[in-house]
Amino acid sequence: EIITAFSESLLSSLRKGEAEEEQEGKGYLERLSMKILDNIQLKIQNIHVRYEINLENYVGDQSGFALGLKLGQINVITTNDKWEFQFLDRTVEENIDKPMHKLLALSDLC
Question: Is this prediction's pTM over 0.90?
Answer without folding.
Answer: no
